[in-house]
Amino acid sequence: MPRVPILSREDLAESDRDIYDDYERVRKVGPSGIHRAIANAPALLRAYMPISNALRFGTKLDPRLRELAIVMVGHVTHSSYEVQAHSRFALKEGVRPEQLQQLSLFESSAVYNTTERAVIRYAAEVSLKGQVSPPTFDALRKAFSDDVIVELALQVGFYNSVVRILGAFGIEAEGPTS
Amino acid sequence: MSRVPHQPIAVATELLPAVSAQLEAVGEDLSGPLFGAMGNAPELAHAYFGFGAGVVSRCGIQPGLRELVAMTVLEAIGASNMAARHCQLALTLGEPEHKLRQRHAFRTAPEFSELERAVLSFAQESARDVNVKAQTFAKLATWFTVQEQTALTLLVAYYAGLACIALPLEAEPDFM
Fold first, then answer.
1. Across the interface, which of B44, B58, B134 has its CB nearest the CB of A58?
2. Which DSSP category does B21 fall into?
3. N or C: chain A end with fewer CB closer than 10 Å?
4. In chain A, positions 82-121, which contact chain B (CB-CB < 8 Å)?
5. How far, CA to CA in Å, does A141 sit from each of A120, B4, B15, B134, B170?
6. Chain A positions in Cβ-Cβ contact with residue B3 (cut-off 8 Å)
7. Which domain range does residue B126 map to?
8. Do A169 and B153 touch (CB under 8 A)?
C-alpha cells in the first residue's frame, strides 16, 4: 500500500495536467506509479521528467544493457517494482528471459557475454557498495568509450535514486514477479 | 583523478544561476571533478543539473537542515569528501559547529529537535537500506505535508544517486 497518494490527471491542478499530457505524448502510455506519486510535488515531477526521459531515450548505451543494469539495481536493492517494470522493458529491448532469471548467477552463467557481465557487475557493485573495484571499471573501459561509461554511470546512479523513492513511498510490484 | 577525462559542460542560461549557486557554495565550479566527469555525456548532465537544481531549491526544509540531510546521505553511502563540502556549506548557512560535530549522534544529542531527528532518521535509512520502514516514513507526517514529504524523499534520493555517480567515477571533489 503506497504511503503517499497515487494521483490521477484529474487530481492535479489544471495548471499541472500538462505534465501527464507530455508524459503520454513522449512515452505513449500513461504515467506509472512512481511518477503519479512524485506528482504530489508537481514542480519536482517537472524537474524529474527531463532526466528520466533523457536516460530512456537519449543515450548511446545499448538499451539491452541499460535494462540489464536497471533490473540489477532493482534486484540487489530488493525493489520489486523496479524489477517488475524494467523486466518488461528489458524483454521488449531483446533481453532473453533466461538472462533475467539468472541475474543472481551472472558471474558464472553462460547466458551472458563479457560486456553484459561487465555492465551487470558495475550495477551490482555500485548499488551494494557505492563504488566499484578497479577490475570492474577496467572491464567497462574495454567495452565502451568514455561517454558511454558516463551514460552508464548516470543510469545506475539515477536508478539508485529511483529505488529509494520507491522504497520510501512503499510502492511495490503490482503482481507476482518472476 | 577521475576515471574518465573531464569535459566542460555548457549549462543552459535558465539553469545557470541555480547550478552556479550550488557549486560555488561548496567551493566547486563547472570544471570540478564530478561535473567535469559528467560532461562526457553533456545532454544527460544538463538534464541531471535540472533535476538537482529543482530538488535542492524546492525541498521545503530550511537550508541548514537540507545540508544536514545531504551530509547524512553522502556519508551513509561513503562519499565523505562530498559530505565535507556540505558541512562547510552548513557552517556558512549558520549551523553551529558543535551541532555539526554531533551529527552522527542526532538521535540522542540535545542539539537536534524531534523534527530534525525524524528527517535525519529517514535520510539515513533511505540511503543505507533503500527500503524505508513504514514507521520511519510515518514520522515525517507529524511535521510535513504530503507535498513536503515527497520533496524530502526526492532530496534524499537525489543525493544518494549523486554519490552513486561520483564514487565509481572517482569524481568526488578534493577534501577541503
1. B44
2. H
3. N
4. none
5. 14, 10, 32, 41, 14
6. 137, 149
7. 63-165
8. yes
